[in-house]
Design goal:
This protein is α/β, with parallel strands linked by helices. It is built from 11 helices and 8 strands. It is globular.
Length: 300
């Protein structure tokens, strides 16, 4: 590990794929390489309409990361797992699946990681929550991990080929799958310094959830320029810089300046693309002529 970035121009994120597509990518390394400028920021696409057919299409779009939103979806474990596998296999490893899990549940974190994804953890506010997340995501006492090893996920001689043959499969997996935490409240921003001081070596990237943050502050909209809000954003960004932790976020509708300090950027999504079709429907309604004055044959 460490030289994958040299093959990104040719292979895309397949440069970071594991020996088996059932394993997670070397996503930790990819985020760090983007942060250090060895590769361009990772381009993400948001999969909010979490169905298997749409995942198959999105896997062919060429995005570096596909964000699978399991937090705000009605799909079950089986569907989430199949979506991750479809992304891995349909893209031939050129897209990395990241699953936003529903909350901090130990089992949910394990399900997403067992599927072969990296994870996004919503609404992290305290050191204790961050420590729990890291523990649930890691194997072995060395990482203070409590993750259970799945006996039938990476079968011997079939899917258990390690990235580094000098280490166990479990230590390899610990260093492959990435953890992104979402900070979505003012209290979370204020606690971010303590969180990164405690477990920052295992947190690979941070995402500011501006919508929930603004809701927690009694503000409307996804973004704004209120002094109180901008002060919290500045504290968030200054904390990340101090800890040398990659930042991530949205950069929609070609507003590329918003990606200036981010290693991972979501630039679009299935639901947003469909919303754009509303203009087409309205345009058709306004411009298609009525048949009221058209001659008709009598029909009996």
């Amino acid at each position: 590990m460490g030289f994958e970035y040299k093959e990104v121009a040719e292979k895309g994120m397949a440069a970071y794929r594991a020996p088996s597509l059932l394993q997670p990518h070397k996503a930790r390394q990819a985020l760090r390489d983007a942060y250090e400028g060895k590769i361009k920021p990772l381009i993400g696409y948001y999969h909010g309409i979490t169905t298997i057919p749409t995942a198959r299409v999105m896997a062919q779009l060429g995005a570096d990361i596909i964000w699978v939103d399991w937090e705000h979806a009605s799909c079950g474990v089986e569907t989430m797992t199949t979506i991750v596998h479809e992304i891995q296999f349909m893209s031939e490893g050129r897209s990395i699946p990241f699953v936003r899990v529903p909350g901090h549940d130990h089992a949910a974190i394990g399900y997403a990681l067992d599927a072969g994804a990296s994870i996004i953890i919503p609404q992290v506010e305290t050191v204790e929550q961050a420590q729990h997340v890291v523990s649930a995501a890691k194997f072995g006492k060395v990482r203070q991990g409590t993750r259970s090893a799945p006996p039938c996920r990476w079968l011997p001689g079939v899917g258990d080929m390690p990235v580094d043959p000098n280490r166990s499969l479990w230590e390899n997996l610990n260093d492959q799958a990435a953890i992104i935490i979402q900070i979505e409240s003012e209290q979370g921003v204020k606690n971010l310094d303590a969180i990164l001081s405690a477990v920052g070596d295992q947190i690979d990237c941070v995402w500011i959830g501006s919508l929930d943050l603004r809701v927690s502050m009694g503000l409307d909209g996804v973004w704004g320029d209120e002094p109180s809000f901008m002060d919290v954003v500045k504290l968030y960004e200054d904390t990340l810089k101090r800890h040398k932790t990659p930042n991530s976020g949205m950069c929609m509708f070609g507003q590329w300046e918003k990606a200036s300090n981010k290693a991972f950027v979501v630039v679009g999504g299935d639901a947003f693309a469909l919303l754009g079709e509303a203009a087409l429907v309205n345009n058709a309604r306004a411009n298609l002529p009525s048949l009221a004055n058209e001659p008709r044959n009598n029909v009996h």
